[in-house]
Design a protein that fits this description.
2 domains; about 40% helix; elongated; alpha+beta
Length: about 280
């Protein structure tokens, strides 16, 4: 087991105002259930979810605050689950505003302990909270912004309504706004003229914003991206872009099931979703 003690003690001191002695028994004394992860003692954990490469459990004694993500050997590829655990641990340190806090991990990355968040489901009422807290300016920009395309003034909202499966009474839903944000993240750094261009953005845009996405929609996404990357316009957008390009993640996977919010409704990426060649 390995724990970044300095960061963890700092977090505990900030959150709870408690002091803990710096000794080797600290990890097991604060997280006694760590001793029951490998092998997993099912009497001390509840399964709360899972995916292709990992299973997620909550310790019964700390179920509201923590989860353990355990790499599985489905498809005979346990390495992917371990890679995801390592990436998420790194991401929580490098991009703390968009990833859950991570506290401890196995030496071989077979498991990682993170804060528990609320995972958003399709049509979840919490999508409204996510947008209001994290992207209020971008939502307003999408709703009222305009741009010129082929010599004609276009409404961003009207352009995207035709590409949105999350439309309610001719309005963009909060879930739909986030969907368009993920599209803008992929499109924005892919163009030759973009100051933020990266090879990874180009790869993702080519793969997920290909011929099925109209050119006018791509133009709208570029306008949203350029607006969102300005630090004063919802800085979470900027951090999402840096996380996605730095860690080579797939924003196309960021939706119901792997996006969540913490207790303050801050956006959290529940599943790092690194790109795996199949």
């Amino acid at each position: 087991m390995k724990l970044l003690m300095e960061n963890w003690r700092k977090f505990v001191n900030e959150e709870e105002g408690e002091q803990f002695p710096p000794n080797d028994d600290y990890e097991n004394s604060y997280f006694p259930w760590l001793n029951h992860i490998s092998p997993l003692d099912s009497s001390k954990f509840d399964r709360v979810g899972g995916g292709t490469y990992r299973e997620v459990y909550s310790p019964k004694s700390d179920s509201e605050d923590f989860v353990v993500k355990i790499a599985t050997n489905r498809r005979g590829r346990i390495e992917e689950g371990r890679d995801m655990n390592e990436i998420e641990f790194e991401a929580s340190r490098k991009f703390p505003n968009v990833f859950p806090k991570a506290y401890s991990h196995a030496d071989d990355w077979s498991w990682v302990v993170t804060e528990r968040i609320t995972i958003l489901k399709p049509d979840d009422v919490h999508w409204d909270e996510l947008i209001v807290v994290n992207f209020p300016d971008i939502k307003e920009f999408i709703s009222k912004g305009k741009f010129v395309y082929n010599g004609e003034e276009k409404s961003i909202k009207n352009v995207l309504l035709g590409a949105d499966i999350f439309v309610v009474q001719n309005e963009l839903s909060s879930e739909g706004v986030f969907f368009h944000i993920t599209q803008a993240l992929m499109q924005g750094g892919s163009g030759d003229s973009s100051r933020y261009k990266t090879g990874w953005s180009k790869k993702m845009a080519d793969q997920y914003l290909g011929s099925e996405t109209k050119d006018v929609e791509k133009a709208a996404y570029q306008i949203i991206f350029d607006y969102g990357m300005k630090s004063e316009n919802d800085p979470i957008f900027n951090e999402l872009y840096r996380a996605y390009t730095d860690l080579k993640l797939e924003p196309s996977d960021w939706g119901a099931g792997n996006i969540g919010i913490d207790k303050m409704s801050n956006l959290k990426i529940a599943d790092a979703s690194p790109y795996f060649e199949m």
